Amino acid sequence: MMDFDDKKFEEKTLSRQEIFHGKIFQVARDIVSLPDDSTSFRELVFHNGGTAIAPVHRGKMVLVGQYRKALEQFIFEIPAGKLEKGEEKDPKAAALRELEEETGYQAEKVTEITSFYGTPGFSSEKTYVYFSENLTKLEQPKPADDGEFLEQIEVTLDEAKAMIGRGQIADAKTIMAVWYWEMKMLKAKENTHA
């Protein structure tokens, strides 16, 4: 990591106005003091975070499709959901809960791929992404959330990459998961030929 004084870039909050306090996120408008002593404003979204899991079963990735109102579009994603209060301490358990609720599967082995801030310019939402194989279909899984209407499909890596090209997979977490799956498969292939 580069060694520099990041404190000199800090923006100090002079005032905060809460604009919206909802069930999923809060919106605020801050007046901030900038490093050159001028002031500006920042519109901010505070979110508890999210979790997602890329399940692969018998060589195919399990995806769930749903209509995303913000996009006015139906897209396919890996199972995911928001972290409830207290779940930020164990996002892996929350990812496994989402896997069961959205697909009816349970995972034995889970690997953390990454965690990331999708839009750090205005949002505090951090998403944790996991990868799983060796899935077991449950006879009586936890039910999906109320108001959640999902279409479940299973796709090969080539099919998933084609879906990215067509915009049917369009979110960062799912694209990252597909790239991770491809790297994992390439590494396995290299090890086989070594």
What's the domain count?
2
Secondary-structure content class: alpha+beta
String of helices and strands: EEEEEEEHEEEHH
Low-confidence stretches: none
Q: What's the N-to-C terminus distance? A: 33 Å
Fraction of helical residues: 10-25%
Q: How much is the radius of gyration in Å?
A: 20 Å
Architecture (CATH level 2) name of the largest domain: Alpha-Beta Complex
- In this structure, how is the largest beta sheet organized? 7 strands, mixed
Strand content: 35-45%
What is the CATH homologous superfamily assignment of the largest domain?
A: Nucleoside Triphosphate Pyrophosphohydrolase
CATH topology of the largest domain: Nucleoside Triphosphate Pyrophosphohydrolase
* CATH class assignment of the largest domain: Alpha Beta
Number of helices: 3
Overall average pLDDT: 94
* C-alpha geometry: globular
Q: Please give the number of β-strands.
A: 10
